[in-house]
Amino acid sequence: MTSLPALTLNNGVSIPQLGFGVYQVPEEDTTTVTAALRAGYRSIDTAAAYGNEAGVGKAIAGSGIAREELFVTTKVWNTDQGYDATLRAFDESLARLGLDHVDLYLIHWPVPAQDRYLDTWRAIERLTADGRIRAAGVSNFQPAHLRRLLDHSSLVPAVNQIELHPAFQQTELRELHAELGIATEAWSPLARGVVLDDEAITTLAERHGKSPSQIVLRWHLQLGNIVIPKSVTPSRIAENIDVFDFALTDEEMASLASLDRGLRTGPDPDTFN
Ligand SMILES: NC(=O)c1ccc[n+]([C@@H]2O[C@H](COP(=O)([O-])OP(=O)(O)OC[C@H]3O[C@@H](n4cnc5c(N)ncnc54)[C@H](OP(=O)(O)O)[C@@H]3O)[C@@H](O)[C@H]2O)c1
């Protein structure tokens, strides 16, 4: 079975660099997460908003894999932002997951129009101090949101999970993360499939005898990103973790830089609520 490389977060916690995303995996479908765990994934990325935490919890419980070998991420949804609401939402997520702690808890979106993420973060600080969250992070935070958070808290997010793929490379935000000691986690790492026909990618796929998806995931890993590709298709679940037996050259990495076309497939964090 593939042994997954890990990154060390800014608080010393280790995270597998490649995990499994479960957005749009139905609650009742426990076979998908089960297939991922069998294929060797050990990190699962869910969220209260995905409505499938209980299904993820069931698949974990049925896997027989020791809790300490797993890395479970979930997120507080926009309507649960604020100090008390976040504490409640966290308890509810844990109950659905059937766990007594999560490895990473994220503020799902900054929702600047609500302006509650500082209070939400205070709740997350408390949950972290209580040992119920091993690492605390954010998602979809823009530079201004990160800077404001850091102006009000000494707890630096371990992770910022952002939309990132070859068509939206987020170079400036990645540089800011590096400066602040925040790990970059890429959501929609495959751009939900839209980049897989790009010629620069298919050329490398043919050269390496790999699939376009494997080339894109390898590009992320070599940039230092954490990736969480999602699939409900068993062959793709296996394909997406089979990316540790080849490497792209510096020149090949550079050839993918030209694919950046500022293409957001998801909402704009500055306006999304
Ligand atoms: N924090 C946030 O705001 C946020 C937002 C979006 C996503 N996320 C997280 O990031 C995870 C991944 O993002 P995502 O699900 O949006 O997109 P993604 O992983 O980039 O792409 C998933 C899509 O690509 C297809 N696919 C997967 N592997 C493939 C392969 N090897 N070849 C061809 N097609 C393949 C899947 O199809 P099938 O499933 O039909 O196989 C699915 O339609 C999510 O599941 C979620 O955990 C977080």
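^ NAP complex. The chain has one domain: 6-193+227-232. The domain at 6-193+227-232 is CATH 3.20.20.100 (TIM Barrel).
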